[in-house]
Amino acid sequence: MSTNLSVEDVPFNRFHTLLTVRSVGGLFVDGYVLSIIGVALATLSPQLGLDAFWQGTIAASALLGIFVGGFIGGMLTDRLGRRLLYFVGPAMFVIFSVLQFWVTSGTELFALRFITGIAVGIEYPVATAFLVEFLPKKQRGPCLASLNVLWFAGAACAFVVAEALLHFGGENGWRWTLSSTAVFGALLFLIRIGTPESPRWLLSKGRAEEAERIIRRVYGAHFGLANLKENREGKKLRLNDLLHSGYGKRMAFVAIFWTCSVTPVFAVYAFAPRVLDALHLRGDWASWGSIAITLLFVVGCILAMRQVNTLGRRKLLIRSFLWSGLALLLLGWMNNGPSLLILALFGAYALLIGGAQVLQFVYPNEIFPTEIRAGAVGFTASLSRIGAAAGTWLVPLSLQNAGIEATMYIAAAITFTGLLVSWLMAPETKNLTLNEAASLGEEAPLNPARQPVFFERPSPYK
Predict the structure, then answer these.
(1) 412 close to 108: Cβ distance less than 8 angstroms
(2) Count of beta carbons in the 10 Å neighbourhood of residue 98
(3) What end-to-end distance do the CA atoms of the chain give, in Å?
(4) Which of 118, 200, 260, 288 could make a disulfide contact with 65, Cβ separation 3.0–4.6 Å?
(5) Domains of the chain, each with CATH number or no CATH
């Protein structure tokens, strides 16, 4: 028995569900890792004698690690395969989180957080490439968008767990807090056991028989390589092809919009208590406000995830940058307002930036081909972390020297930069197969005919 049905058109099955859980679990841990330091810093800084410079440096250390890990993880994932790298990140989470319990200086903590960031950087390209190469076309956008939902869920969990461990853990509470990531890393490692290699990657390496066996195992005995609809002819692409032809433009678009969407978010997460304190939210207002705002980030991502197919990638991205930027602008202008107003504006930002957040893994996985997909995701993730690390490092210095008003205006300016770049460069890919979305040829334009959208502009990729 045979079928001409593409694997991208099959119904969403149990394998897809399990693979989604395995991949989004990595982003949950990533959100936990990158957010836990923001809560622990206030307690550990006096014990380790950290000044504003070292607080910013340690908060940015994991982001610097992501810069390195994204490059390494992307290249190794394309070279060695998705399955092998799938276990590297979780193993590193366990080892280097446990070691943080015994740190005695800011230098040691910086080094361990940096290596943990490398693990996060490795996780981004492998988890997303693995997922997109198996998913049906209709579920591709929402499932990739769910990665960011779980990132913020991990961040929210970090705030809750950290508050509990700092409260009940005594003078070592911050050590238990930083080491708690090991638990989630171990669980992630265990649930990924049994995951098969990506048949698209195997085919790109000329291993057709192995690819066909996995296709039959996942989709059924009547499926084969003919159902994969993957290009097997023509020039083999390398990562440096990103810098040439249309791929250079795509890399620039993804790197810039990703940077503009994560920089204010990471800065807020790393120093949420200090930012809220500067906005005159203290005590219980600050503690519960941090948790509430984090939960609103989750809600915003969930709402955006539901719109990624209906509203479309381009329109969702443009509107997200526009309205979230206005919320930050108002936070700067009304920084002396009542506590409820400040929380409402912060909550509005958290809800409205969701569109840009969920598209961080959708766009790069759709508009680059299999041979360089993981490398492209890792490369653009790394580039985005330069701005995120710089922004995070500068937050305590900006609050100290420029004040909260100027800090919020800077965050708004970064967000509006993302709006401009998205208006000029964002394509629409929601109705395309992976081959069509990644193609540079005229026969498969990235921006097919569609209804006019707010701030509409023809795609530069046509």
Answers:
(1) no
(2) 18
(3) 40
(4) 118
(5) 7-195+234-438 (1.20.1250.20)
